[in-house]
Amino acid sequence: MVAPLKERLNRDIVINRLIDYSPLMVLFFIVIVNVIFTPNFASVNTLRNLAIQVTSSLLVALGMTWVIASGGIDISVGSVMALVSMVSAKLVGIGAVQSITIGIITGILSGVLAGAIIAKFNIQPIIVTLSLMIGIRGVAQIINDSKILRLDSPEYVFIGRHRIFGEIPIQVVIAFVAIIIMYFISSRMVFGRKIQAVGENHKATELVGINTFVVKIGIYATCAFLASIAGVIDTARISASDANILGSMIELDAIAAVAIGGTPMNGGKPNIIGTVFGALIIQVITTMVNMNNISFEYSLILKAIIIILALWAQRFLHSKR
After folding, report:
1. Does the chain have fewer CB atoms within 10 Å around its N or its C terminus?
2. H or E segment to which residue 169 belongs
3. pTM, two decimal places
4. Alpha-carbon distance 26 to 128, whole Å?
């Protein structure tokens, strides 16, 4: 009797470890494959560029983790990036700090609007954020007549190009700080528990006295805030704002990162560290495609396949748990 019980416990431990560490194992496997088959992949420049390029999608994915953990979805994040980029670039004449602040506040307000509509009127998040995705992108394009706005501000560009100690890109530091804060809130603070509660059982959460209206606004505002920072970083990195393409399709990378990272897609506990590994996996695949001269379209197909496989793996492993 004891032996079968012990065997079952050991099996459960193995399954739990597979669930917890599967994103890390997948990342390790993909990196090893690229080190072997992709020329110059293991070079310092490649790794530095990978870290720089993953920053924006990682920031957006961190916010998306909370949204998906709450049982929602936000496909307006790319348009929020474009709006913040254009607003801050248009106002840069009043000062870099002031223009960036106004731009980020604009982005946060769009998140507050999304959260308020979803929570107040109980409309499906994908419908609300789809409408905002279209509308916000349109506003961003109107601001400069759909033209590229060149940025001539050393203070603004500093955010996208400065390297600490001459080696560490400043946006990587920003992303690292965001990871620490999001992980701490998700795992150590009451708000993190509320996110999980809303995602697992919305009605029960209301019955125990949690203000789901405020929680949802906080979730979508945070997602928009992180998308806003990503928009500023991308604008600074290229010294220009293009509302037509900036942030385009980034929601795909963010959702894929969250799915790969293990956060339940129907709501539940946010897995911040898993999302980090998920974002790195997506960026490594993109880098692999570029360095092997494979058409960009194939990377989109790979990402779509990865999302489907990640969802299947989630369902399979959690059923075993």
Report:
1. N
2. strand 168-169
3. 0.92
4. 34
